[in-house]
Amino acid sequence: MKQINGIMMQYFEWYMECNQNLWNDISKNAEKLANIGITALWLPPAYKGLGGKDEVGYAVYDVYDLGEFNQKGSIKTKYGSKEEYINCIRTLKQNGIETYADIVLNHKMGADMLQTIPATKVDWGNHNELVSNQETVKVATKFTFPGRKHKYSDFEWNWTHFDGIDYDEKSKEHAIFKFKDKAWSDAVDEEYGNYDYLMGADLDFENPEVVEECNKWGSWYLETTKVDGFRLDAVKHIDSKFYKDWIQNLRDKTKNELFTVGEYWSGDVSKLHKYIEETEEKISLFDVPLHYNLESASKDENYDLSKILEGTLVKENPAKAVTFVDNHDTQPDQSLQSFVEGWFKQAAYSIILLRCDGYPCIFYGDFYGIPHNKIEPTRELETIIKLRKDKAYGEQHDYFDSPNCIGWTREGEESHLKSGLAVIISNKEDSEKRMYIGTRISGRKIS
Asked: Which residues are catalytic?
């Protein structure tokens, strides 16, 4: 259950070198993280991927292999073994920290066998447009998981469980091939005409066998790991009805809240509202529009700070907004690179951590740095986290009344000793602002 003034932390970045030991490292750091104010960790995908010990986690192979079987060249995943993962979650619980598992159900990669089937090519720019006649292709769609030998599940995947793929082994051609008698789901993002297809062998959520297996796996995963909730990958590419039903099914079975946040990558807040409505508000979403506003503010000295919350989920539906500054996709050299400039990071984190709305998520790369790109940790980020834990309480008063200087105050609460704060942010010359902070702290000096 999300705690008052809770803080989620994404505990990985794309290039981290953890030597298959991340789960153990987290266990060692759990007490410190709890002490500074972290209440939940979003952990990276824990199951075996195409790259084995080098797989970040999004090229999914076997969701039942949490670092237990010799598959894809290793037993452990990049982050450790199944036993270490479960122990990590247990240790976090003991320190009052919830765990959110990264769930990637959109696609599979690294099939064990090829299959020869009929398919039709579609246009890269418009997935609804056919660009070839039906042809015979040889595709990687048969998953038997020989290293696992049917432990936990005897389900084997074949081409009928997918609706498309992006490579033909027969012709060596990279193209989007839609399989015979298959149709893209309607309840997905409309980019590229229809954004059901993203990568790999794309799961067909219209197939009842696929839905049943995903439901069974979800129950197994919760029972096995005891995680407290989920981060859902690539939800704009998956039928919204599937995840609405999937998460409700698991909540009904476990009688737990299972806090769930989805990654719907769009800067258009109306699309986020639509998804939240389609899933009957069962799923929160990352506030991508806010991220882009923060990036723009960091790269334009003339940015109007008074508009920084305009068009964001945290302003329009704060109860469903998970706010963030950056993540593993927006960091340098990644697919959605849009990294907030270092000089503005403290201001950006103040906006997501020291205000009353939204559920903030800290990025590992900002907290610890990104050696791959020679990026240092964000200065005073730990201080801002502690300020949220100790001071950010009470009624909020906003002063978003100047393009180059904004601020807000929190009056504090009697139940939190010496709480209350004032924040001022300027993007040009020195500024000053007169702000009301309430009567509770009359006569106190704030530093």
From this structure: 233, 263
